[in-house]
TrEMBL record:
<keyword id="KW-0808">Transferase</keyword>
<dbReference type="InterPro" id="IPR024709">
    <property type="entry name" value="FucosylTrfase_pln"/>
</dbReference>
<keyword id="KW-0294">Fucose metabolism</keyword>
<dbReference type="Pfam" id="PF10250">
    <property type="entry name" value="O-FucT"/>
</dbReference>
<protein>
    <recommendedName>
        <fullName>O-fucosyltransferase family protein</fullName>
    </recommendedName>
</protein>
<keyword id="KW-0119">Carbohydrate metabolism</keyword>
<keyword id="KW-0328">Glycosyltransferase</keyword>
<comment type="similarity">
    <text>Belongs to the glycosyltransferase GT106 family.</text>
</comment>
<dbReference type="InterPro" id="IPR019378">
    <property type="entry name" value="GDP-Fuc_O-FucTrfase"/>
</dbReference>
Length: 435
């Protein structure tokens, strides 16, 4: 791994920490919706907003999402006590509203005013619109809260995002225990390569294939399955008047999830051979027996959470997609190379976390899917030509591995320079002037 950057939480803490927290202006209740990493985003943004408003943050409520269907609470996924302790000098976090406060709202949290905050709102909006109501009422709700704070905020708020995401949020003990065993087993299975393995985030679940509006090779049966899946999860969204589904255009535009076969061909083209240990992070793959067969044939040392853990170990996680995603996240986090095949919060958070842990640069392959679609759909392309194109994608991914955050970028994906300090030759660290 490259060196040159290191986490600088002490520098961050000096900007936002208190020897004694000031008197609170009231209680902030937020509802985190979506999957594991969308919830993560909401939690970290809520910490920043609570600090800005000088509010007491109530442990976030998790909304039961129609797609994810996971009833887990905060403490099922994250270590509540550790989270509260890690933020103790910055934001007061409590598990639930005090009884006397709840009684003021007839013991019903729904009676607390829900402020509809627009997406990507600025800190000024919170100070002008939310703070007066917080002070007047003593408690406010913001639901939903996903993406309710702008990416571009002052450095002290970015620092709180860093502290929350990379230091305060750790998985609950049951998740850490099993994820640790899975990682050890993956290392053992990779002993011939010095414990190095490739992790792949494969987004080929039915809901992802359906949402993409792409077509594969299942004909009319597949089209009917996808229509039913789209209607079940996104009622009416894809049947609105004027909505036209163009699978061919989606593919040319690089919007289609890569199939397991395409992922395998890409990796083999990049030079990863059949002896490469591969961990695949995924939900329930669409028609897994059919689509996973060629990938397993190309990479016989392929593992998933279902092969690394026993059914007995996984039983408490089954039916809880966010907890299962946390297991995948941990094994991917410590891989030598991480391959992302589709956008979304999982790869974005993982890329940032890996940069944070590994000196600002972690090997991540983020392919150009427009280019891949063109190459895969070229009937006369020679294997040598294809391999050269894959090597070019690999080189480009490596160059982008240590990228700094742009003004409108996310600190969760690009932790430099807001969360990390540049190391000088003598080993000292320095914050960049614009961080």
């Amino acid at each position: 791994m490259h060196q040159g950057w290191k986490p600088c939480i002490n520098s961050i803490s000096s900007k936002t920490g208190f020897s004694e927290l000031p008197e609170s202006n009231g209680f902030l209740i937020i509802e985190a919706n979506g999957g594991l990493n969308q919830q993560r985003l909401s939690i970290c943004d809520a910490v920043a907003v609570a600090w800005l408003l000088n509010a007491t943050l109530v442990i976030p409520i998790f909304h039961l999402n129609s797609v994810w269907q996971d009833s887990s609470k905060f403490g099922d996924i994250f270590d509540e006590e550790f989270f509260i302790h890690a933020l103790r000098n910055h934001v007061n976090v409590i598990r639930e509203l005090p009884e006397d406060v709840l009684q003021r709202f007839d013991n019903n949290i729904s009676n607390i005013v829900n402020l509809r905050v627009k997406g990507w709102s600025s800190p000024a909006h919170y100070l002008e619109k939310v703070l007066p109501k917080l002070k007047a009422m003593g408690a406010v709700r913001i639901a939903p809260f996903s993406n309710r704070l702008a990416y571009s905020v002052p450095s002290n708020l970015q620092g709180l995002r860093c502290l929350s995401n990379f230091e305060a949020l750790r998985f609950s003990e049951p998740i850490r225990a099993l994820a640790g065993k899975m990682f050890e087993r993956m290392l053992k299975n990779s002993s011939h390569s010095g414990g190095k393995y490739v992790s792949v985030h494969l987004r080929f679940e039915m809901d992802m294939v359906a949402f993409s509006c792409c077509e594969y090779d299942g004909g009319e049966e597949e089209r009917q399955e996808m229509d039913i899946a789209r209607e079940r999860s996104w009622r009416g969204k894809f049947r609105r008047r004027g909505r036209v589904i163009r699978p061919d255009a989606n593919r040319v535009d690089g919007k289609c999830p890569l199939t397991p076969l395409e992922v395998g061909m890409m990796l083999r083209g990049m030079g990863f051979d059949k002896n490469t240990p591969v961990f695949v992070a995924a939900g329930n793959i669409y028609k897994a027996e059919k689509y996973m067969a060629p990938l397993k044939q190309m990479f016989p040392l392929l593992e998933t959470k279902d092969t690394l853990a026993t059914p007995e170990e996984l039983v408490i996680f089954k039916g809880h997609s966010s907890r299962l995603a946390a297991l995948d996240y941990t094994v991917c986090l410590h891989s030598e190379v991480f391959v992302t095949t589709q956008g979304g919060n999982f790869p974005h958070f993982l890329m940032g976390h890996r940069r944070y842990l590994y000196g600002g640069h972690a090997k991540t392959i983020k392919p150009d899917k427009r280019k891949l679609a063109m190459l895969f759909d070229s009937p006369h392309i020679r294997w040598e030509t294809f391999k050269q194109q894959m090597k070019d994608i690999l080189r480009h991914s490596d160059v982008k591995g240590g990228e700094l955050k742009k003004l409108t970028g996310s600190v969760y994906t690009f932790p430099m320079p807001d969360c990390m300090c540049k190391q000088t030759e003598n080993g000292n660290t320095t914050k960049l002037p614009y961080s």
